[in-house]
Amino acid sequence: MPSPSHKLLRVGNGRRARPGDGPSPLDKRLARVDATPGGDQLGLRELQRLAARAIFRPLGRGGRMQRTWLDGRATSDVVAEFIKPNDRLSSLERIEIYNRQYWFRILDCLYDDYPGLRAILGERRFHYLRVAYLTKYPSASFTLRNLGGRLEQFLREEPRWTSPRQEICLEMARFEWAQIVAFDGPAKPALAPGDLLNSRPSKLRLGLQPYLSLLELSWPLDDFVMAVKKRDVALRSEASNAISERDGKHATHRPRLPRREPAFIAVHRHENDLYYKRLDAIQFRLLSALRDGATLQRACQQALASEDDPSLATRIGDWFRVWTELGWFCKRS
Fold this sequence. Notes:
Structural class: alpha+beta
Distance between the termini: 27 Å
Number of helices: 13
Strand content: 5-15%
Order of helices and strands: EHHHHHHHHEEHHEEHHHE
Helix content: 40-55%
Mean pLDDT: 85
Oligomer: single chain
Largest sheet: 4 strands, antiparallel
Strand order of the largest sheet: 1-5-4-3
């Protein structure tokens, strides 16, 4: 079982963004197929691509479907060529349901996956950031799990969304993406203690599980995220009750940002639960060297180069016992 020092994470599954202003990268990536005026019949694949283009386009003002198509025509005229109205809804209203629900769903996913980043920026700024991000880097996977895979890259490319807190936001994006990787990333058969016996340290190279992330951070983001999650749980527990004026003010309170101080964190899972574990600098250097392909002997030399603590040999043995029990080690590919 994980040691008591582990912290359990309960994972649930500048300029205002105006994604309706001109074509998005998604528009450009989809097949360039438009309905042909005059009643020409579309092939099935063309029809699917056209419907996808309409559904996946970013929402316009007021969270509604954009009223102008890419070529300047009215969206209502375009969709009327391949969607029939019914006795209650027009063609535009029918497909707008899917357009809105698609965008509400992917926006909600980022909301749930990045509570720490949301707490740093505040609800309003985080909303504009995620709209801008999904407009530039739309979903390209069958699973919503990958939705935030390019968020850190986006923040580096467009720092206006996180200024003046760019650095801590970048670290938070990396930290929260590591949690997604740990939650359902692939696993290799773990090495047992007996697998390491009779191995020469000068030759032995150990692999680390693909779902394990080693992070060197400038802020203790693990404690901050735990506080954010506890606050969110407390607020949800009150959702069905009448909220007083005082409670309402509390609900909008932003958690205090952590003070800057180095933190080494391993983000991993154990027995299908997600954890993060604090490491000291020596542990981090040792594991990082193993991850990068060093032999066990070389990794220890690198980690202990400036250390003269005689108790380190015993401590290293204890570390490896714990790490092996947690299943962190595997054969290198």
